Amino acid sequence: MQILFHAPDANPAPWLAELQAALPQAQLRVWQEGDTAPADFAVVWKPPAAMLQGRTDLKGIFNLGAGVDAILQLGDALPAGVPIVRLDDAGMGVQMAEYVSHAVLRYFRKFDQLDAQQRAGKWRFVKAHEKENFSVGILGLGVLGSRIAAALAPFGFPLHGWSRTQKTADGMTCHAGADALPGFLAASRVVVCVLPLTADTAGILNRANLSVMPAGGYLINVARGAHLVEEDLLALVQAGHIAGATLDVFRQEPLPPDHPFWQEPRITITPHIAAVTLRADSVRQIAAKINRLQQGQDVPGVVERARGY
Ligand code: NAP
Ligand code: GLV
Q1: Which atom of ligand 1 is nearest to the CA of 147?
Q2: pLDDT digits over 230-241, tens only?
């Protein structure tokens, strides 16, 4: 079994060593420009078109992340009929739960204000928001969104969720489809975006939609930078409609040094670390799925190309 590997941001040596240990029968190689030799599987992050074009011999392409926007934008360069398999949690769910719980609790208990007070040397009592008015709405109730909802549930915030198809979940009001978006936004004092980036969701965090949120709302974007119209958020923060935003993803990454977000204290910036790909968990999951595919069995996490996730 031949496996191609390409992950430009990672050191390939430990990945190849751990994949080899999990799949002793495999022959692994880092893909190089011009390599068109046969392969059975590809394990990739942000692959170039030349790596995958015409490779209809592949039995599976494994994406080293949950989001498949970077690979799907290759369009017709992707070999037709080859399953593209995303990472299913693989240790990202708990990281998302940690990140979003921290951001929600920070705003709810006003730790952002308390930090500013400490920097100014002020001792002043600060009351938390009222919980019944501090509803949290999660855009995207898939693998990661549902894990975030489960982490927030014990705190007792009113919870809302939005997805494409209708869901039911104890303790959460579930909204589905484009027509239900305004009602979801109007009900959500805090909006958490954990949607895949698709033609339908690009730019969803725009002035019109964010204006539907209650005044003094908060935004947490852990999905993709292109979900947010950055200048719209800045204007709404400066107008006071959005009280604060925690952003992990940006249209341009790294965020350029002259970007106005750096100068806006109500916007908290993190460098795309909400949920990172964990090597051991990912290798375990990919190896198990390769073994299943080799035996002709189905695997979870196969991307539906037409819907974009
Ligand atoms: P997922 O399991 O595919 O879930 C996607 C959810 O979004 C589903 O509930 C889906 O609805 C919903 N959705 C998709 N299109 C929609 C639309 N047009 N309208 C309403 N709902 C829609 O994805 P996931 O594993 O949770 O990951 C979500 C995203 O998180 C990834 O695509 C990636 O971009 C991002 N991410 C970021 C980081 C980071 O570190 N910042 C790390 C990992 C992932 P249905 O349930 O009805 O299909
Ligand atoms: C990271 O952003 C991922 O999609 O896994």
Answers
A1: 26
A2: 999 999 999 999
Per-residue pLDDT, averaged over 176-186, amounts to 98
- With respect to residue 151, please indicate whether it lies within any of the assigned structural domains: yes
Residues 64 and 144 in one domain: no
Structure tokens of 115? 């930090």
The whole domain housing 209 covers 92-269
CATH number of the domain enclosing 198: 3.40.50.720
CA separation, residue 30 to residues 10, 44, 67, 230 (Å): 12, 10, 22, 37
Of 197, 277, 278, 285, the residue with max ligand 2 atoms within 8 A of its CB, to mutate for a pocket test, comes to 277
Residue 309 forms part of a structural domain: no
Average pLDDT over the chain, rounded to an integer: 98
Q: Is 309 in the pocket of ligand 1 (CB under 6 A)?
A: yes
Contact 191, 139 (CB under 8 A): yes
Does any domain span residue 300? no
- pTM assigned to the model: 0.98
Predicted local distance difference test score (pLDDT) of residue 118: 98
Binding-site residues, ligand 2, Cβ < 6 A:
65-67, 277
